[in-house]
Amino acid sequence: MVKVQERRHLVLIGNGMAGINTVEQILKLAPSTYRITVFGSEPYPNYNRIQLSYVLEKSKAVEDIILNDWDWYLENEIELYTGTTVTHIDTEQKIVKADNGIEVPYDTLIIATGSNPFMLPVPGADKEGIVGFRDIADCENMLHAADQYKKAAVIGGGLLGLEAAKGLLKLGMDVTVVHLFEEIMERQLDHTASLMLQAELESQGLKFATGKQTEEFLGDDRVSGLRFSDGTTLDAEFVVMAVGIRPNTALAKESGISVNRGILVDDYMRTSAPDVYAVGECNEHRGTTYGLVAPLFEQGAVLAKYLCGVDTKPYEGSVVSTQLKISGVDVFSAGEFMDAEGLSIVRMHDDWLRIYKKVLLRGGRIVGGVLVGDGKESSRLQQWIRTGTVMTEAIHNAIVGHASVETENTAAELADEEIVCGCNGVTKKHIVDAINEKGLTTVEEIKVATSASRSCGGCRPVVEQILQYVLGDKYDSAAAKQEAICSCTTLSRDEVVTAIKEKGLITSKEVRYALEWDNPEGCSKCRPALNYYLGMIWPAEHVDEKDSRFVNERMHANIQKDGTFGVVPRMYGGVTTPDDLRLIADIAVKYNVKLVKVTGGQRLDLLGVKKEDLPKIWKDLGMPSGYAYAKALRTVKTCVGSQFCRFGTKDSMGMGILLEKKFERLDMPAKFKLAVNGCPRNCAESSTKDIGIVGNEGAWEIYVGGNGGIKARLAELLCKVRTDEELLDIVSAFMQYYRETGKYLERTSDWIERIGLESVTEAVVNDLDNRRALAERMEVALAQVKEPWSEILNNSNLRERMFEEISVSTKQD
């Protein structure tokens, strides 16, 4: 009888990105080699730490940044101890001991304890209200503080500090960034880029105190302010320290493992103790510690191969890159970034567009670069830096030119072990193997199979290049861009829409049944999408499925974090009257509104309205809904134009009001914003709107695809027109074309990048017959729209079901 060899026991201390990524690669290389136990101090499964800033600014929930959920550990037979801290390693007996008394033997041990935020050793640093920013608990502390306090200080003008500061700003706090040096992000940006970034952040509301050294934290038990070495002070009720990190070496040091700044490792991540390895921010390799995620994954790739007996090159260090994860701010830096002797510089600086690009060459090869304001080429720039690509005219045009230029596919130049997806540590080989072994043909399939592009999406262009490189002549660029609308089906948006038309499907239930949904009830992703597609295709026949709407759209108001709602009445073109202002003020007092806020769309937001008061406040206002909650036209922002401005050449207010009244209430794939300027001075900010209209002498310029949100994008010129009638026709055709071809929740900025401005121009400008047909279908859709507040006020059954019953049950609870 042959004895089955028992699997070796691998213990991982640290449930973070570096350690778990190493385990993932071990499971791929040799799934039967190890029995695995994982210890994590936090009460969560593995999550994406670099996306904490998105959680802080509330654009993502904690669930959205989980990389490996609880089921993943079960499926891979991994024994997981969360909320458990290892306190000692007996390297002779090969046993780890935890703070709750658990003792686990190991054959192989990986230490991945990460790093701790560096807390300034100055008087008062132990006061209440002073925190670091490294994990979900810190994030929750900051969210809680924003509910109670107004003035915050963030110490540290580096990557993490700026992300923390912007998050607190979005939570409504008055935030000052305190930085020791005169320039922010001085380790990643040159003088010009740093000043541009600071100016952009100041325009968004952040304050800066640069060149300031914190000497003391003021206050009694709780912090009340900071005193600097120059004698000046700063009021602050809450302080975030983001001045740097220190490798978490306490466990290794206490256990007799050699430590310097980090846990000392060789080129295969071996420590001074036998069968003990260290990976990630906790280690020190060739005198260097890393605080960015890509190097940690590169280390993990070497370690995984070494532990699985796979030939591998030693780890020799990393070329680091930095991308600021702040909504509306585009900053990228990689490799060398400061001018120096022996370097050639390719530079473009456009103050008007607020774009700065700089590429550094040594011997004609790309060795570094900085991008501010336009990061479309960041993935490829990083790739060129890593491979030492020779500068060519095509690359020069792509990086420095005013428009993106197609360059050759450089996927063949990437080494197999090159990390393509920095967020999830996916190498080129992982992607190539998945394509070959599983017959993948789309980027979406690669994302599901490998996690490449699953998080921030920045690596998607390189992933597509690899797909094209592997498939060769079999590559279908159109098919490669298709993706299933949700996990309930393998069908793409286009396939679903085509089937709805061909089969005459009218309800979401019919769609899920006829198209054989895996989940017959659908999910939170496909239900609202199907409801939109059906309403777009059959505007007269489809009955809106309110239960498929997001909560804000069901309630026709924006729900706030305390359970109250925000009510925004429509102000056409941002224009109002004294009577309407007086009415709004009286109603705000009557219903004890917590806050009246002027919005970015030139309207008034009544915040803190109770759910049961919504119908009453709508009735008393007697104004139409501003649709601040809907996937529809939100606002048409205007300047005063020729009616009042001495520079105005066109009646921007009149045109804005006309457009808003025509297209209000119409369902769109995503929220939609317009702006109309009476002259090129851009006071209404047309350059960041879905449609931006600029008046010139004798003409209107139409710009499209702008976005000022998380993925900022400047609008592009669609066309120029002479008459108001032609302007309305083209705007109507553009909006209908977007409605018919856009994916649900896809902003026009992404839509235009996906299908191309040329195809949009051809469909809505050049092809007159198609333009006319689009405009006619738009009129059919507009004929179906209803004012939602009035509809509810005039429908007692609907009002009772949505508001009155809810309010009664709430009181009973």
UniProtKB/TrEMBL annotation:
Gene3D superfamilies: 3.30.390.30, 3.90.480.20, BFD-like [2Fe-2S]-binding domain, FAD/NAD(P)-binding domain, Sulfite Reductase Hemoprotein, domain 1. Residues 419-468, 485-534 form the BFD-like [2Fe-2S]-binding domain. InterPro entries: BFD-like_2Fe2S-bd_dom, BFD-like_2Fe2S-bd_dom_sf, FAD/NAD-bd_sf, FAD/NAD-binding_dom, FAD/NAD-linked_Rdtase_dimer_sf, NasD-like, NiRdtase/SiRdtase_haem-b_fer, Nit/Sulf_reduc_fer-like_dom_sf. Its cofactor is FAD; [4Fe-4S] cluster; siroheme; [2Fe-2S] cluster. Residues 9-284 form the FAD/NAD(P)-binding domain. Residues 560-621 form the Nitrite/Sulfite reductase ferredoxin-like domain. Keywords: 2Fe-2S, 4Fe-4S, FAD, Flavoprotein, Heme, Iron, Iron-sulfur, Metal-binding, Nitrate assimilation, Oxidoreductase. Pfam families: Fer2_BFD, NIR_SIR, NIR_SIR_ferr, Pyr_redox_2, Rubredoxin_C. Residues 321-388 form the NADH-rubredoxin oxidoreductase C-terminal domain. Pathway: Nitrogen metabolism; nitrate reduction (assimilation). Residues 630-769 form the Nitrite/sulphite reductase 4Fe-4S domain. Belongs to the nitrite and sulfite reductase 4Fe-4S domain family. PANTHER family: NITRITE REDUCTASE (NADH) LARGE SUBUNIT. This is NAD(P)/FAD-dependent oxidoreductase. It comes from Paenibacillus gallinarum.
